[in-house]
Amino acid sequence: ETGVTQTPRHLVMGMTNKKSLKCEQHLGHNAMYWYKQSAKKPLELMFVYNFKEQTENNSVPSRFSPECPNSSHLFLHLHTLQPEDSALYLCASSLLLAGGGTGELFFGEGSRLTVL
Amino acid sequence: AQSVTQLDSHVSVSEGTPVLLRCNYSSSYSPSLFWYVQHPNKGLQLLLKYTSAATLVKGINGFEAEFKKSETSFHLTKPSAHMSDAAEYFCVVSKNDMRFGAGTRLTVKP
Hints:
The structure holds two protein chains of two kinds.
Chain A: E1 4-7, E2 10-13, E3 18-25, E4 31-37, E5 44-50, E6 53-57, E7 64-70, E8 73-79, E9 87-94, E10 106-107, E11 111-115
Parallel strand pairs in A: 2-11
Antiparallel strand pairs in A: 1-3, 3-8, 4-5, 4-9, 5-6, 7-8, 9-10, 9-11
Chain B: E1 3-6, E2 10-14, E3 19-21, E4 23-26, E5 32-38, E6 44-50, E7 56-58, E8 64-68, E9 73-78, E10 87-94, E11 98-100, E12 104-109
Parallel strand pairs in B: 2-12
Antiparallel strand pairs in B: 1-4, 3-9, 5-6, 5-10, 7-8, 8-9, 10-11, 10-12
């Protein structure tokens, strides 16, 4: 039990499908993140939410749409994806520090996405 | 601005021999530093962290790292590698945001 749960663990979708990835944290954290991990590439930060407000969007294509209804839940809505979007999508959470910055990230086990 | 460089993309050791994974950082301020481990098809797990207390930090699974400000390094070591240590390791520097290194793949030979 990592405290951060991602579902589904595996997802196969066609380019015209619409699906969503879900992340839930039970750690009382106030920041949540989506990362993309592709083979042979560094970890890419996609989105950051602090206190449910999006604070960072690293030039992510609009076919990825995040949603953070509360501090414990984070979604990544997917539509009209491309085969190159196939990757491991990792969710993380952390506690924002009073003086700025963040404590360590706690990661979920990831959702392995395959786009056909 | 801050950044982190992992000096080796791949390290291979024999079981029972020491492990050294190298990390250099760049930061305008005193940063926090972390090492994470990722086993195949898993998320990242925190191994250890440095947050301006003791410069020698002990982590889980027998790993430790030493913060050397003069060398801007935070190398990860373990005295004796185990087969289960085979994984990807990430060095991370943090001040106002977290910057991940590109990762070092550790292979352990029997």
